[in-house]
Input
Amino acid sequence: MIISTLAFACMNAIVKHLTDIGAFQIVFFRSVSSLFFTFGFLIKNNIPILGNNRKLLILRGLVGVTSMSLFFMSTKYLPIGTAVSLRYMAPIFAAVFAIFFLKEKIKPFQWLFFTMAFVGVLILKGFDTNLDGYGLILIFISAIFSGLVYIVISKIGKGDHPVVVVNYFMVISTVLGGVLSINNWVNPEGIEWIMLLGLGLFGYFGQVYMTKAFQIAATNQVAPLKYLEVIFTLLLGVLLFSEIYTLYSLLGIALIIFGLVLNALYKGKK
Output
């Protein structure tokens, strides 16, 4: 999951620069470039492309592309850091969904730790009274669908290879992203081509390792680690974009790490 969050943070940094390209077009390029990796891996290793749990695989693809599209759309209305932070309502939704769909139990102390980490995410970027209402709605719905992604992957379990799961997601995203971007297509120029292809590279590794994580561990144990993506994104902001963060940002990072460590220790004792 740590490898996954680092890869997604790199992808977020790229999205930050693609302000002139529509969300569905970004979805298309992010997905189509990943297909070279997924199809290549499956063919090389003689893994059945269609998989076993086909209905769940299709559902995972549809839920995933919905969440991803809404997230990219929200970045047009919200700062990328704010969008990434607010998307981290997803593990909270995943933990709640896991109670009903996976029959997992979450102890009261774990809810306290989840809350601590979530408060840290909010503090990390501060409270902005000028946030766009439409953007907030988009990112909120994106977080709900992202939480559902975790549940579907857990339902698939070890019945399908992680790359098969990712491949379904990429195929569905390529088709839907391509079709929905036709009317608003913008021809990339220069370095934008490299950035768009980079979306697929980082997105591929992010999806594969996230899928592996949820296949081998309980949702309520793995999902909170997704908060690390916020930390990685902020570090990239400092290193690549010379962004400056306040003491409130440092407090937010401390709360996130503290909440995750306490949850891991608590789960270990149980």
About this structure: The mean pLDDT is 84. The two ends are 21 Å apart (CA to CA).
